[in-house]
Design goal:
single chain; mainly alpha; two-stranded antiparallel sheet; 4 helices; 2 strands; transmembrane helix; DUF1648 domain-containing protein; transmembrane
């Protein structure tokens, strides 16, 4: 199958998403460190579908999402640099390869950064629950996670069908 290795520079769109995603994610980690002294020994460890805490755990668990986020960021950033390894339809050829690679990479970039933003929001809410500012993470979280990850995937699929 035709899979050339192309050096395609990141678009302004991808760079903007990286700045937004990483910036918000880093702020959430900074928030955990700033609030560390006020956080009790037990923090929310898990939530049910409506955002209520259904398990409490050690405050060290606040670093699980940031750790996963950093791992995800590294892994997906490496995959962004290798669009020739992504999955494409059989109609990939020398005339449309650049369009397919860019679309795949942009979709991956959006998903990566939306995941970082979602992890940041969850971490922020976990700290707020732990210190008693709020009681639940919010009913809005599950729909936002589902819609937030589905939209870039659907956009990417639609764009793939439009590539000639």
């Amino acid at each position: 199958m035709y899979r050339p290795i192309l050096k395609l520079p990141k678009t302004k769109f991808e760079k903007l998403w990286d700045y937004i995603g990483c910036g918000i994610f880093m702020l959430s980690i900074l928030y955990i460190f700033i609030m560390w002294g006020e956080i009790p020994e037990e923090v929310p460890g898990h939530f049910n579908g409506v955002g209520e805490v259904d398990r409490w755990g050690s405050k060290i668990e606040l670093f699980i999402l940031p750790f996963i986020g950093v791992f995800l960021w590294i892994l997906l950033s490496l995959l962004e640099k290798a669009p020739h390894m992504h999955n494409y339809p059989a109609r990939l050829n020398e005339n449309n390869v650049k369009a397919f690679y860019l679309n795949s990479r942009k979709t991956l970039n959006e998903i990566k950064n939306l995941c970082l933003i979602i992890f940041a929001a969850i971490s922020f809410q976990m700290v707020r629950i732990a210190i008693g500012e709020i009681e639940t993470i919010g009913w809005w979280l599950l729909p936002i996670v589902l819609i937030g990850t589905a939209i870039p995937i659907i956009k990417g699929i639609v764009a793939t069908f439009k590539i000639k």
